[in-house]
Write a structure and sequence with these properties.
By secondary structure, the protein is an alpha/beta fold. The protein is about 45% helix and about 15% strand. It is built from ten helices and ten strands. β3, α2 and β4 form a beta-alpha-beta unit. The longest helix has 20 residues.
Length: about 300
């Protein structure tokens, strides 16, 4: 399960936000192009003030992306990790780059009631969200974007009635270096087409349950999830992940370091299946096989 914000969605939100600001300020921000990066930066009173709430792998990648784009971004990071970022900058080693990137991003250890941002991106584990809802309620920031895996979008929106709540998914992954990372060796699966096909069948069971519950299937490319073309595309993707380091970076690193989150998502997704009378026999078989990892 992987996460980093969709550029398309973010650009749509930026467009809506800019329109509101333009009407309020009766002016349009001047834009400039830097010689060093070629990135367009927003200047003047339209500079968006952003807080990234959470300094795990996804939060750090998101904060760095905003920072590189010239945004006024602050990263909420606590403890020794937050102190390290303040002292040494946000250091990220990209898998396919020989260099370590260092971004001098402002860091805060808390979200105070008087702090105001144009938007807060909440990038926490699924099991950590309830603990910060009161903090978000007491803060005046209206725009809240939850980034990552989530089975309770409606409940989260209802719990913050005074906020403009949005949801996003991310495409970055990895792990924080500490002592070591426990990871599944996905290379052993690359030749096991039968097993990978079972994973796809479980995925199709999930899509079928979502569709039968009356929800729209997104992205649009996946509407024909029952067809042979979808199965073939997924199989190619899974084999690629299993044969390369992409599987470790994008799936197993996070799953093995967030067993509590995986377990909670599995529990709530099964509850969704049961509430809607869905059949998910393949999912249940796979669950039994990985039971030793689930809490």
């Amino acid at each position: 399960m992987t996460f980093a914000l969709s550029v398309t969605m973010f650009q749509l939100e930026m467009a809506n936000w800019r329109k509101t600001k333009e009407n309020r300020n009766k002016s349009i921000a001047r834009r400039g192009r830097t010689k060093e990066t070629g990135i367009f930066r927003i200047r003047g009173d339209l500079a968006m003030k952003i807080l990234v709430f959470g300094a795990g792998v996804l939060g750090c990648n998101l904060a760095r992306n905003f920072f590189r784009a010239g945004k006024d971004v602050t990263l909420l990071a606590r403890g020794a990790w937050g102190e390290s970022i303040q002292k040494n900058g946000l250091r990220i080693k990209d898998k396919f780059s020989p260099r370590m990137s260092v971004s001098r991003i402002p860091v805060t250890a808390e979200l105070k009631a008087e702090d105001k941002y144009d938007v807060i991106f909440v990038v926490l584990r699924y099991t950590q969200l309830d603990a910060i809802l009161d903090t978000l309620r007491m803060n005046p920031t209206k725009n809240i974007v939850f980034v990552g895996n989530d089975m309770r979008a409606s409940a989260l929106s209802a719990s913050l009635p005074e906020k403009n709540v949005m949801f996003a998914f991310a495409s970055s992954a990895g792990h924080r270096e500490r002592e070591y990372v426990a990871s599944v060796d996905l290379k052993k699966l690359k030749g096991n087409t039968a097993y990978l096909s079972r994973l796809i069948d479980a995925n199709i069971e999930s899509y079928r349950a979502i569709k039968n519950a009356g929800h729209e299937i997104l992205p649009k490319d996946n509407v024909e999830f029952e067809g042979a073309a979808y199965h073939k595309t997924c199989l190619r993707f899974f084999k690629l992940m299993c044969a390369t380091s992409l599987g470790k970076i994008c799936a197993s690193d996070h799953a093995m370091n967030a067993v509590d989150e995986m377990s909670a998502l599995n529990r709530d997704l099964k509850a969704f299946f049961d509430e809607n009378g869905a059949k998910y026999s393949v999912w249940q078989e796979l669950e039994q096989e990985v039971a030793k990892y689930l809490k």
